[in-house]
Amino acid sequence: MNKVILMGRLTRDPEVRYTTNTNTLVASFSLAVNRRFAKQGEERQADFINVVAWNKTGEFCSKWFKKGQQVGIIGRIQTRNWEDENKVKHYVTEVIAEEAYFADTKRDGTAGGENFENTFGSTVSDASEFSVQSDDELPF
User: Does residue 113 sit in helix, strand or coil?
Assistant: First the structure.
C-alpha cells in the first residue's frame, strides 16, 4: 500500500503548468513538514516535501493555497528519473496529491480569506450551538 498523509506549511505559492500533449493542469508546490521530535537542546527540524497535484485537485490547490498556509495532503509517493540533454540522470521523489485540505483555523485568516468564505459560506466558530444536553438527544 502506498499512502501518504502530510500536514505542513506551503513554502511558496503553487506553480501551475499544463502538459504539452493533453493540456492537463499540473500544480506543484513544496510543504515544510515539522518532524515529530527534536534532539535535546536543538530546534525541531522540518522536511521539505515536493507535492504534485493534477487536474481538479491541482486546480483547487492553485486557486486556494498560498505561501505560508497550513494544509493537509493525502496522496501517494512516486519516484521518477530522466536524463537531460547533457546526458545527466536526474532522480526525484514526490508526493502525488489525491486529496487536499485546509488545515489553518478560520481565525488565522489564512483559510482562503474572504473569497473562500463568499464561495463556500462561513464555518461554525462556536461549537456550543451544537452541544448535547443528554444522551436522549443522540440519534444513535
Answer: helix
Q: Is the pTM here over 0.85, yes or no?
A: no
Dihedral sign (CA 2, 6, 72, 10): negative
CB 57: neighbour CB atoms within 10 A?
A: 19
If pLDDT is split at 50, 70 and 90, which confidence band does 96 have? very high
Q: In terms of residue numbers, what domain contains 113?
A: 4-37+44-122
The structural domain count of the chain equals: 1
Cα–Cα distance, 75 to 78 (Å, whole number): 10
- Say if strands 25-34 and 4-10 run parallel, antiparallel, or are unpaired: antiparallel
Give the per-residue pLDDT at 106: 65
Give the integer Cα–Cα distance in Å for 30 and 11. 6
